[in-house]
Amino acid sequence: MNVIRTDIPDVLVVEPKVFGDDRGFFFESFNEARFAEAVGKTVPFVQDNHSRSARGVLRGLHYQIRQPQGKLVRVVTGEVFDVAVDLRKDSATFGRWVGITLSAENKRQMWIPEGFAHGFIVTSDSAEFLYKTTDYWAPEHERCIAWNDPAIGVVWPVDGEPILSDKDKRGVSLADAEVFA
Q1: 172 DSSP 8-state letter
Q2: Distance from first CA to last CA of the chain, Å, rounded?
């Protein structure tokens, strides 16, 4: 496994070692000991989620203000542009974002620790997205920041308006959001 630090050092890109031949491929998608070494601590994952979305669907920017979730995310079909936004008020990178392309082809994963908002947009015809979380989904604590908040300035690879859920249409600005102390 190759671990790449992003412009926000706590957000990591994980590239698995892929073994392939004319029959197909094999790779280890998660190894607790190796992952703990990469992030500097044991990370207890408690829930796995799987979503499927069509081209142009944007999900995010989501986070939970209580029961914050760290997420290890990957794509098994298609391609997405995946984004993490630092919401840790005392962080040197507060309000900054990092984004990478995750695809079935590149098999990359992104580690988004607790204290970040997360979102993605589907850039292929469809995409299936898998993620492990460090805490359970708690809808009463879920919050959403507007995908297009100019204070954050995410550069999404989208032509026109993305397809949003009603919840995501109601996302607030970073200035109005509850953040992590």
Answers
A1: B
A2: 33
Active-site residue flag, 131: yes
For 114, the token pair is 């607790």
* Catalytic residue (one of 62, 63, 118, 136): 62
Domain 44-176 sits in CATH at 2.60.120.10
Tell me which of 50, 131, 136, 141 is the catalytic residue: 131
In angstroms, the CA 174 to CA 122 distance is 23
Q: pLDDT for 92-149, tens place per residue? A: 999 999 999 999 999 999 999 999 999 999 999 999 999 999 999 999 999 999 999 9
What are residue 141's phi and psi, to 5 degrees?
-110, 0
Enter the tokens of residue 148. 């297009």
Give the residue extent of every domain in the chain. 44-176
Number of CB atoms found within 10 A of residue 66's CB: 11
